[in-house]
Amino acid sequence: MPLVIGLTGGIASGKSTVANLFAEQFGIDIVDADIVARQVVEKGTPGLAAIRDHFGAAVLNPDATLNRAALRERIFSNENEKMWLNNLLHPLIREKMTQDLRQVHSPYALLVVPLLVENQLQSMADRILVVDVDQATQIQRTMARDEVSEQQVRAILASQASREQRLACADDVIKNDAKNQKLLPQITELHQKYLAISRTNL
Prior knowledge:
- It contains nine helices and five strands; from the N terminus they run βαβααααββαααβα.
- By secondary structure, the chain is an alpha/beta fold.
- The protein has two domains: about 1-30 and about 105-200, Rossmann fold (3-Layer(aba) Sandwich); about 45-100, no CATH class.
- The protein has a five-stranded parallel β-sheet, with helices on both faces.
- The radius of gyration is 18 Å and the shape is globular.
């Protein structure tokens, strides 16, 4: 298993931008929890079969793929159903992420998990890298990107770990506040650091 860097950050912090720069500039392999979460409920998977058995065929599209809107409706106002779904999906996602990390060919891997702190997945990574941004910037970026109200963004922020909680778990931090924050120098420095650590881990 390679050195695993757990990359996390709040909404609109720039996690994807940072991960893509590591991949594009240095050829680092990425395992993305959001992608894995979709893969474990693809057509023909045990995950999707369990969801269909529990919620019924109404949560499927005509082509037998998952109807995410219908599923969201089922769990939205029902805490027990939401818990059932999380109890099903979290172990499947974790197992698939572990499998994917074993396939990595780069000297270290980025494990991108937006809710790393919230779901207490720190143990899956050797180091935690937090993309840090102030709340005002998060609100501004999310409103512009998702065309949602400030109230909605604040509700999302309230449901996530606080900036302080995230930073308390961080081994490394990338600052991404300013509009034209220079990300590449920060990423280059960390890349050199991770290469050095991965060599000592051999």
